[in-house]
Amino acid sequence: IGALRWHFLLQSLQDLQKSLCQLGSCLLVLQGEYEPVLKAHIQKWNITQVTLDAEMEPFYKEMESNIRRLGEELGFEVLSLVGHSLYDTKRILELNGGSPPLTYKKFLHILSLLGDPEVPVRNLTAEDFQRCRPPDLGLAECYRVPLPVDLNIPLESLSPWKGGETEGLQRLEQHLTDQGWVAHFTKPKTIPNSLLPSTTGLSPYFSVGCLSVRTFFYRLSNIYAQAKHHSLPPVSLQGQLLWREFFYTVASATPNFTRMVGNPICLQIPWYEDAEKLHKWKTAQTGFPWIDAIMTQLQQEGWIHHLARHAVACFLTRGDLWISWEEGMKVFEEMLLDADYSINAGNWMWLSASAFFHQYTRIFCPVRFGKRTDPEGKYIRKYLPILKNFPPKYIYEPWTASEEEQKQAGCIIGQDYPFPMVNHKEVSDHNLQLMKQVREEQQR
Ligand code: FAD
């Protein structure tokens, strides 16, 4: 977890703390390993019930079974609730006959058998909150939400995205006001390089639990019910939420989901190991402005558009550098505000054509891709100000400008900004052949 996400998480906790206080309750934050922390507080605070979110990630599955064991030992009840996802993935898997293969189409069919997701258990009342007063208010200061300095989190790395339910709800309301936009939302038509997100930008809020996916799902259903026509999965907004469910379901049934080796759904590819090239990609020094602008946005803000994720993921893996998707996934995990075990790995496998996606001959061009929706290069000028004075015709490939034109733009390629690190045409043709070979061998 990188600094941006730490800040986002702490802001979210602050916001939750504030809301609970307004309801006459309080949030106590306990720090440390969960077992000793629980052991130390169960008796002290006379805790009779521990509640947690059902999760797919192996770490949390193990945590749940350890807490259950502790519950039996120390005599508290454990409730694990399906809240982070819309559906109980176990139910979906049962209807799929136990385990994958599962396609999105088949997945939608199973969901149609299950019906709409359950609504939240019940709404809590002010009285519920008042019953949940902290055991000893005098102690509350020791259990306050930590500040970034308490955790040695660098203060300078702050994303413009602010954490918390309040912000998340505002963002949600803002988008839902435009009912036409919601009803006709078509994901592939959204723009990866707009200066403000062209999609909802709600993923960080779902990710750390500031916003409920059920709230979003039902608000969308209400809008669809009133619209004459609306888009459908996989491209609609509800369809996006269902992709999330899809990856949770497959991840929960796949061993080693975040790795290539030992992962039964993942194509085994002999990727190159090249720390220097990986570093250039990560630190926005590939020499392709479109790729570097995206990686800069990721570094500075912790969020990038889905198609921008496509561009940089394809470039790192099957498109240009032929470096393992696991490396890219780790970088995303560190930098994304919405970093998620199942969704991140699932999408990286998709983009590298290691699983789910088989049209591997479609390779994104690091020059033409961005140009289509931003011919002027405003996005590049924002994130790579060193290039801002190049005229539009050079902004995606500044190395093609003459020496004189580079001087005029105040940026000499090879000195102030790198030359492209690869010849895209050559490496992508070569990689395509490699991919064909790997697939043929493994099919045999
Ligand atoms: P919207 O288009 O507004 O969609 C609404 C919600 O649907 C999102 O908030 C998200 O929860 C869900 N969603 C949308 N697209 C997808 C998708 N393809 N897969 C699963 N759920 C989706 N998303 C993460 O939340 N965490 C990750 O770690 C993550 N890693 C990714 C890595 C790669 C290589 C790629 C290509 C995509 C990744 N995504 C990840 C999926 C997707 O890019 C983001 O969920 C989306 O861009 C978030 O922006 P939004 O909230 O505006 O999405």
TrEMBL record:
<dbReference type="GO" id="GO:0045892">
    <property type="term" value="P:negative regulation of DNA-templated transcription"/>
</dbReference>
<dbReference type="Pfam" id="PF00875">
    <property type="entry name" value="DNA_photolyase"/>
</dbReference>
<feature type="site" description="Electron transfer via tryptophanyl radical">
    <location>
        <position position="271"/>
    </location>
</feature>
<dbReference type="GO" id="GO:0043153">
    <property type="term" value="P:entrainment of circadian clock by photoperiod"/>
</dbReference>
<feature type="domain" description="Photolyase/cryptochrome alpha/beta">
    <location>
        <begin position="1"/>
        <end position="86"/>
    </location>
</feature>
<dbReference type="InterPro" id="IPR036155">
    <property type="entry name" value="Crypto/Photolyase_N_sf"/>
</dbReference>
<feature type="binding site">
    <location>
        <begin position="240"/>
        <end position="247"/>
    </location>
    <ligand>
        <name>FAD</name>
    </ligand>
</feature>
<feature type="site" description="Electron transfer via tryptophanyl radical">
    <location>
        <position position="325"/>
    </location>
</feature>
<dbReference type="GO" id="GO:0071949">
    <property type="term" value="F:FAD binding"/>
</dbReference>
<comment type="similarity">
    <text>Belongs to the DNA photolyase class-1 family.</text>
</comment>
<dbReference type="InterPro" id="IPR006050">
    <property type="entry name" value="DNA_photolyase_N"/>
</dbReference>
<dbReference type="GO" id="GO:0005737">
    <property type="term" value="C:cytoplasm"/>
</dbReference>
<dbReference type="Pfam" id="PF03441">
    <property type="entry name" value="FAD_binding_7"/>
</dbReference>
<dbReference type="GO" id="GO:0003677">
    <property type="term" value="F:DNA binding"/>
</dbReference>
<keyword id="KW-0274">FAD</keyword>
<dbReference type="GO" id="GO:0032922">
    <property type="term" value="P:circadian regulation of gene expression"/>
</dbReference>
<dbReference type="GO" id="GO:0005634">
    <property type="term" value="C:nucleus"/>
</dbReference>
<dbReference type="InterPro" id="IPR036134">
    <property type="entry name" value="Crypto/Photolyase_FAD-like_sf"/>
</dbReference>
<feature type="binding site">
    <location>
        <begin position="199"/>
        <end position="203"/>
    </location>
    <ligand>
        <name>FAD</name>
    </ligand>
</feature>
<keyword id="KW-0285">Flavoprotein</keyword>
<dbReference type="InterPro" id="IPR005101">
    <property type="entry name" value="Cryptochr/Photolyase_FAD-bd"/>
</dbReference>
<feature type="site" description="Electron transfer via tryptophanyl radical">
    <location>
        <position position="348"/>
    </location>
</feature>
<protein>
    <submittedName>
        <fullName>Cryptochrome-1</fullName>
    </submittedName>
</protein>
<dbReference type="InterPro" id="IPR002081">
    <property type="entry name" value="Cryptochrome/DNA_photolyase_1"/>
</dbReference>
<keyword id="KW-0157">Chromophore</keyword>
<feature type="binding site">
    <location>
        <begin position="338"/>
        <end position="340"/>
    </location>
    <ligand>
        <name>FAD</name>
    </ligand>
</feature>
<dbReference type="InterPro" id="IPR014729">
    <property type="entry name" value="Rossmann-like_a/b/a_fold"/>
</dbReference>
